[in-house]
Amino acid sequence: MGRLDGKIAVITGGARGLGLCMAETFVREGALVITVDRSGNDHPSERIIGYRLDVSDAKGCEEFCKEIIAKYGHIDILINNAGITRDALINKMTDEMWDSVLAVNLKAAFNLCRWIGPHMMEKGSGSIINISSVVGEFGNIGQVNYSASKSALFGFSKSLAKELARKGAQVRCNAVAPGYTMTDMLKTVPQDLLDKFAKQTMLGRLGQPQDIANACLFLASDESSYITGQVISVNGGMRL
Ligand code: NAD
Q1: How far is the CA of 202 from the centre of ligand 1 (A)?
Q2: How many independent structural domains does the chain possess?
Q3: Is 51 tagged catalytic?
């Protein structure tokens, strides 16, 4: 028996990296997964259905949510995982850099939760997980836009948890804050900096996508049925 048998999960940014690892993990536990990505999103597994969508497109998100609910009848898990970086010191940061990061990392969660949250309330259960970052907890030079978007997800998740649990619905909303984890997102970070980040963790290593997917699996499953409105740091005990 899988821990997500019969569940339908929507995972944004599921074409690669953390989102893809979550999708594969969830399928192994019995879920049907719908991945949403703005680029190449074909999967060999019949249990992972790829949708092409830019999650910063509010109208596109509305149509997507309505289509999925009509087609499959229910959405049990939503992971707002799609994220981008556009790094620069604040004096060099353009409006486009600020706006695009806030649109994908923050507004997209609103674009989807405003439809999927009420749907979950109506059916009485569900789990929403917003992927934040260690940078949202501690800040980072060159990332005022990224850290602002990721910190904002803490308040967003806590407020939404309160809203969705009204009227007795067992709908939960939590944030996961991954530490530095080996995906394409870190490809541009110089090795000496990655080594430094690894040393700043208690466990002395960077994260692997599976480390983050395991935490999300726990929060998506009924094993975490009494956890809502929380921020779970998955960062090897990072000290910054
Ligand atoms: P990644 O760049 O490997 O993958 C991100 C995915 O999101 C890509 O498939 C991309 O196409 C998709 N995406 C980007 N913009 C999109 C949009 N507008 N619409 C739809 N899809 C879009 O990144 P990752 O490392 O897998 O990161 C996943 C999440 O985890 C992000 O929110 C990121 O901020 C967060 N995070 C990552 C790390 C890390 O070290 N990798 C650390 C902390 C937090």
Answers
A1: 25
A2: 1
A3: no
